[in-house]
Amino acid sequence: MPKRGPLCVGEKVQLTDRKGAMITALLEDGGVVQTQRGVIPHSSLIGMSEGSVVTTQSSERSFAVDRNGVPSGAASDSPDSIHDKKKPWKIARHVGGWSYTVMRPRLADFVLSMPRGAQIMYPKDIAQVLTMGDIRSGMRVLESGAGSGAMSLHLLDAVGEQGHLTTIERRSEFARIAGLNASVYFGGMPQWWNLLTGDFDVVAKGCEEHFYDRVVLDMLDPWNRLEQVERLIVPGGVLSAYVTTTTQMSRLVEMMRERGSWTEPEVSETIQRDWKVQGLAVRPNHQMIGHTGFIVISRAMDVGVEALHRRERATKDTYSDVDDATPSQTLEELELRDISDRKLRKVLRDLEHQATVVTSNTGQGTPVGS
């Protein structure tokens, strides 16, 4: 359920200053938020409404401040103090008076700021999986590869308490990180989540056949998991696979076609570019989030039914490798051509005509090849 009303202990808050810098903190009794421009006691945030503004308090560098914001004694001779005397502007950064807007973090903000061990999927890729993978409330979803829990949190939120999510994570420490992040976000371990640890093929054997509406794979070799996925997914179910390299993507797509149990895979990537809008200064930001991964989407055919695939033209052999050719083979025999003979003759006629017109007017000689 969405949280409303005043902020309370045990909630995460997001502090954003006028420059867009963000700090995320979990509210605790006696806690304090350390910033480069002073401190913010948690007591000043607890009971505050979202959309409020809080100002940092002075954090004198002549005292050591513990995690609860309590001075623990003088530290005037500490290396930091001596360092600050040489650089007085550093002391000014701790005098307080800097303002932050207070909000509850969005799910995307929570994911980007949460503690993690494995690399997480970016929100732009997660959104693509949820939308193109058609993951909705009440669905039964199988996920392989929890990582730090970024995708898991979104799947749990999407299917809701009426649905069910089963996640298989190979590494126990990653499973623990994902579980703890979910507990912090939902205020406890979600009851509609079954988090399992072990090898995907081994654990999946204990899952019910044709039980899952959707399957999400985020792993190194998803093509090796297709047999188990076909056994577990319902006919018409959607498989979404996230891979980072072109070789992974190509191998997965070709294996899906070879097995014949999947509709023609849809492959896409999402590139994010933010914009600066300030009066008449409207332009893209200099930095952007480019390639992070490929999303491969396909639907499961019914058992024993062969998928329909587009037939490639005979003149376009995209599979033969010229390095594998025997000495007696030629490029034409391998059909490594992207242009038909008819199109080639038309191009030559057009070019010969144009060259003849140009040379007849300039007197530069006969066109080459005529």
Automatic annotation (TrEMBL):
Catalytic activity: adenosine(58) in tRNA + S-adenosyl-L-methionine = N(1)-methyladenosine(58) in tRNA + S-adenosyl-L-homocysteine + H(+)
Annotated GO MF terms: tRNA (adenine(58)-N1)-methyltransferase activity
GO cellular-component term (any): tRNA (m1A) methyltransferase complex
Cited Gene3D superfamilies: 3.10.330.20, Vaccinia Virus protein VP39
EC top class named in words: transferase
EC number: 2.1.1.220
Annotated S-adenosyl-L-methionine binding sites: 169, 199, 218
Domain tRNA (adenine(58)-N(1))-methyltransferase catalytic subunit TRM61 C-terminal: 110-281
Signal sequence range: none
A Pfam family per the record: TrmI-like_N
Any GO BP annotation: tRNA methylation
UniProt family annotation: Belongs to the class I-like SAM-binding methyltransferase superfamily. TRM61 family.
Name this polypeptide is given: tRNA (adenine(58)-N(1))-methyltransferase TrmI
Species: Bifidobacterium aquikefiri
Source lineage: Bacteria, Bacillati, Actinomycetota, Actinomycetes, Bifidobacteriales
